[in-house]
Amino acid sequence: MNKVILMGRLTRDPEVRYTQTNNTLVASFSLAVNRRFARQGEERQADFINIVAWSKLGEFCSKYFKKGQQVGIIGRIQTRNWDDEQGQKHYVTEVVAEEAYFADSKREAEAGASFENTFGNVATTSPEFEISSNDDLPF
Questions:
Q1: For the chain, domain boundaries
Q2: Which 8-state DSSP code applies to residue 45?
Q3: How confident is residue 68, by pLDDT bands cut at 50, 70 and 90?
Q4: Distance CA 79, CA 15 (A)
Q5: Which residues pair with 99 in a beta bridge?
Q6: How many Cβ atoms from other residues are within 10 Å of residue 60's Cβ?
Q7: Sign of the C-alpha dihedral, residues 106, 108, 109, 113?
C-alpha cells in the first residue's frame, strides 16, 4: 500500500505547467511539514516535501492555495529519474496528490482570503464520494 497523509504550510505558490503530449495541467508546490519532536535546546525542524497535483485537482490547488497557507494533502509517493542534456542522471521523490484540504483555522483563512469551505474535503479525484449538504447521513 502506498498512501501518504501530510499537513504543512506551502513554501511557495503552486506553479502550473502543461504536458507537451496532451496539454494536461499539472501544479507543483512544496510543503514544509514540521517534525513531531525537537531535540532539547533546538528549534523544531521541518521536512520540505514536493507535491504534484494533476488536472482538476491541480487547477484547484493553483487557484486557491497560496504561500504560507496550511493545507492537508493525501496522496502517494512516486519516484522517477531522468538524464539531462549532459548525460547526468537525476532522481526525484515526490507526493502525487489525490485529495487536497484547507487546514488553516477559519480566522486565519479569513485574514488571508475568503473561502466558502475552510474545512473538509474541497477537491478530490473521486467525486463519487462527495457529500452535499442535502444528503442523509447515517450518523
A1: 4-36+45-125
A2: P
A3: very high
A4: 20
A5: 74, 124
A6: 18
A7: positive
DSSP string, 100-133: EEE-S-HHHHHHH---S--SSEEEES-GGG---T
Distance of CA 105 to the CA centre of its chain: 17
Type of residue found at 122 = V
pTM above 0.70, yes or no: yes
Q: In angstroms, rounded to a whole number, what is the distance separating the alpha carbons of residues 83 and 91?
A: 9
Amino acid in the structure at residue 4: V
For residue 22 the three cell numbers come to 496532451
Range 4-36+45-125 has CATH code 2.40.50.140: yes
Q: Of 14, 85, 23, 83, which is closest to residue 50 (Cα–Cα)?
A: 14
Please, which residues have CB within 8 angstroms of residue 119's CB and are 6 or more apart in sequence? Answer: 101, 102, 106
Extract the C-alpha cell encoding 31.
Answer: 510543503
| Lookup result for grid cell 482538476 | 56
Which range of 66-75, 116-125, 126-135 scores highest in mean pLDDT? It is: 66-75
